[in-house]
Amino acid sequence: MQTVVPRTANFFTRFLNLRGSWSGVPSKYVDGAQTPLFLRIPPWWARWTWALVACDLFMTGSAIELTWNHWSQLVSDLEKIGTKNKEASGGVSTPTPTTGTNSEGASYIMRPAWQRLGLCAAHLTLGVGVAAALLVTQARFVRTIAILPPATTTTPASQSGRRVFVQCAHNWRNHGMTFSLSRCSLEEGRNETEMVFRVLGERGHWYVGLQDAIVHGHQVGVLQARNAILEEWRQQGEGKLKRVGKWSAKAKVETNGKWKSGPVIRNVQ
Q1: In sequence order, what E strands does the chain have?
Q2: How far apart are CA 49 and CA 136, in angstroms?
Q3: I need a surface site. Which of 95, 105, 158, 218 has the fewest CB within 10 A?
Q4: 180 pairs with which residues across the strands?
Q5: What residue spans carry the region label Disordered (predicted)?
Q6: pLDDT per position as a tens digit, 175-227
Q7: Where along the chain do its domains lie?
Q8: SS3 breakdown of the chain: % helix, strand, coil, rounded to 5?
Q9: φ, ψ at 15 (rounded to 5°)
Q10: Phi, psi values for residue 116, rounded to 5°
């Protein structure tokens, strides 16, 4: 029997382990006797997301420091601007103080604080945006799916009926989240190598990659993985096809994507 152990769910736990899910129960997959329905190694960038975030923050901090302390302008350019303003207004321009000279004798002055502050804010916004995008996207790639039996008396009543244990790329070891199977659905992905996992009431969705997937402990092809997962989904869902979601005819036809005409059908190993 496949089982999970619920863990205490507070805001900090949800942020670290669910990252965007509020209805799932933080759980721990403890069944070592039976393999999960679906397993897949996440993409390299999903496994090294925190390293990429660290590099992003380092580059962002370096750009901010360089902009604030070293973004300067040639004094000659300022003098030209001052001369033009003087000619336009008929006033007297004040001399511009210098901050240093280069090897050719050209003098530089720091740009106004509002310019440097604006560019620093742009650097910070871009860096934080990239880091947030990496973290959110990492949490949307599924690496483990297991269909569990109905909840026991020790679990919340809201988790009655069969459940789905989902582990994403950002979850450590055997940690993940559990949803009620009646609220879950599988839909067609962006192409034949992907499915989309949705939960009623949840924001967004999760990506289930079928390339190099392991289904019931065996590595199979894309079409075999998809068909096996959908068949298991139907059986565990008591034959209710509505839990599978809406699939287009294109996703159900096992044909070669390069095929234009004729009765050529791709062989499924």
Answers
A1: 4-6, 25-29, 38-39, 72-74, 100-101, 107-110, 142-148, 163-168, 175-180, 184-188, 194-199, 206-209, 214-215, 218-219
A2: 10
A3: 105
A4: 163
A5: 85-104
A6: 888 888 888 888 888 888 899 999 888 888 899 999 999 998 899 999 999 99
A7: 23-43+142-150+160-244, 44-78+110-140
A8: 40, 20, 40
A9: -65, -40
A10: -65, -40
